[in-house]
Amino acid sequence: MSEKQEQTVHRYFAGLAENTFNSELGVVDPPLVDYVSDLLVRFIRLDMVHRVRSVTGRPLMSITEMLSEARERIGDAQRELYRHVGDFTLFWAGVYPEALRNSSPAQDQFTDYCVHGKRSYHIASQIDVENEERLEEALLFERLSDQFELCCYGLREVRRHWEEDNDGPNQIILIG
User: Fold this and answer.
1) Of 124, 54, 58, residue with least CA distance to 89
2) Which pLDDT score is estimated for 132?
């Protein structure tokens, strides 16, 4: 995707997210809404969805693998991995929840994703808060943890709007 296309997609998602969260859900939290719209832009790239790798370089594809790897890391690397788990679970539970509900009849994967996402954002908010910038980020991660289900709902509404939008893309696909 070219830089111009990425900017266009970013503006599109930022507008949808702002309208949905502010106007429809009453969530007036610019850093949170910006984070959610940035998440959408990052995660339409498949390489960002599966960017986390083990120390041997193997892509980590499951939440269980990512959490296991996060427990082995320290400091910034640990915070970043817990953040990614939160982002990964928020994206799938928010934008494509049907993929989680249909994947395993014996287990409600959607609920597991929400539990792991909330917990991961909370843990990320607690790791090495050293300076003002990290404090702001930590507070944002804590809000994402506290409002995880609301953010999932907001993302579902964003998806509904883009699917209904005749001027926007009819279908957002993951780009490899």
Assistant:
1) 124
2) 73
SS3 175: strand
- Can you read off the two tokens belonging to residue 121? 């954002």
Hey, CA dihedral for 56, 58, 59, 63, is it positive or negative?
negative
Contacts 24+ apart (CB under 8 A), 128-134: 128/75, 128/76, 128/79
Tokens of 17: 């997210």
Distance CA 82, CA 1 (A): 27
Burial classification of residue 130, based on how many CB atoms lie within 10 Å of its CB (0-12 exposed, 13-18 middle, 19 or more buried): exposed
Averaged pLDDT, 72-82:
91
| Residues 6+ away with beta carbon under 8 Å from 107 | none
Residue 59: its H or E element: none
Cα 33 from chain centroid (whole Å): 12
What spatial distance separates the first Cα and last Cα of the chain, rounded to whole Å?
10
For 112-129, the pLDDT digits (tens) are 999 999 999 999 999 977
